[in-house]
User: What shape does this take?
Amino acid sequence: MTDYVLSDATRNKLKRASTASIATQLYKRGLRNQFIQGVRPVAAKPETMVGQAFTLRYIPAREDRNALEVFRNPEHPQRVAVETCPPGHVLVMDGRKDASAATAGSILVTRMAVRGCAGIVTDGGLRDAAGIGALDMPAFFAGPSAPTNLTKHEALDINVPIGCGDVAVFPGDVIVGDSDGVMVIPAHLADEIAEVCAGMESFEEFVLEEVQSGTSIIGLYPCTKEENQKKYEEWREKTGR
Assistant: This one.
């Protein structure tokens, strides 16, 4: 879908950016529906999840097609997605916003972590959530669910455009996840958004310190007073941020 390759420099900048800052910058560019709805971290992680999207599409299960024996097929799309999601990428699954059955479990997610994947996102459920939460690799879901995916879902297509939490996700889009949730950055905007957010995060750190010391937000956030701009520049020189 895209020839874009996420650089280490852009990845590192996005790791320091919040999903809130990213949402604001995308909004400025006319993109208002890039936050995956109904998804939260399985467990809090110290580092922001960043990686390009590798996708898996589920459709509603049909009983004559989804007996347990389908997992014996070495070409089963769910298993293949777990084994082929590239290191540094995020597996994003279209679970149709139905968390009444799992879209993956701890063994498959552990396999991805061992392979060096950057994370997993589903707008459906995950089983063995405690085990997934204990991994270093971030995971985001709609909620825990014990039933196997075959109960409600059939894994069908790998690395095609999908919908996840009402957001269009194209293979290669850049996925950023933190404690607030998950943002989807179109690949062609990723470098630009990362660069702008780097400066925005620095300014917001300054603003927060000012607010905590009693400064009014009027004329400070947004910065419309020249004196506040000067204070910010002095703060950056002093702190190196």
